[in-house]
Amino acid sequence: MDRHMGVDVNVRADSTTTSRKLTALPAGAEVLVLRQQRGQEVSVRPHTNDRWAYLPQYAVTSPTST
Question: Which pTM value belongs to this model?
Answer without folding.
Answer: 0.71
